[in-house]
Write a structure and sequence with these properties.
Layout: H1 2-27, E1 31-35, E2 40-44, H2 45-102, H3 110-116
Antiparallel strand pairs: 1-2
Length: 128
C-alpha cells in the first residue's frame, strides 16, 4: 500500500513539473539564437526550454538506471556469497559426519573388565 501511495505522489509531482515547464516555455516564446559551435540557429525559446528539460530528464533516468543496475549486481553477489557459504557448510558437515561414524567404540577385554569391577567389600551384619 505504501508503495502505491508514493507512486501516486511521484506521478502527481511529475505532472505538476510538466505543467510548470510547459507554462514557462509558452510564456517565453521569443526567438533566440542558439550557437552550436559550427552553426548558429534561430529557434523559439520555448523549444530550447523543452529540449533542455527533456535532456535533464533523460540524464536523471540514466543515472537512476545505473544505480539500479549496481544495486541488482550487489544483491546478486550477496546471494551468491550466501549460497557458496551454505554449500561449504554442508560440505563440511558431510565430511565431518562420516569421520565421526568411522570411529569405533573401544572393545573391553576380560582383563579390562576385571580391572573396572568394584571389589566386593564385606559388610558386617548389624546385631539386633
Amino acid at each position: 500500500m505504501k508503495g502505491n501511495v508514493w507512486l501516486n505522489i511521484k506521478v502527481i509531482l511529475m505532472l505538476i513539473g510538466i505543467v510548470l515547464i510547459t507554462m514557462f516555455a509558452t510564456l517565453n516564446s521569443n526567438k533566440v539564437n542558439v550557437n552550436f559551435g559550427l552553426a548558429t540557429v534561430q529557434i523559439s525559446q520555448a523549444i530550447v526550454v523543452l529540449i533542455s528539460a527533456l535532456a535533464g530528464a533523460i540524464i536523471m533516468y540514466l543515472i537512476n538506471l545505473i544505480n539500479i543496475i549496481r544495486q541488482k549486481k550487489m544483491e546478486r553477489d550477496i546471494s551468491l556469497a550466501i549460497k557458496q557459504k551454505e554449500r561449504r557448510k554442508k560440505k563440511e558437515q558431510e565430511t565431518v559426519s562420516p569421520a565421526v561414524e568411522d570411529i569405533e567404540e573401544p572393545q573391553l577385554d576380560d582383563v579390562a573388565v576385571a580391572e573396572l569391577t568394584v571389589p566386593e567389600i564385606a559388610i558386617p551384619e548389624l546385631e539386633k
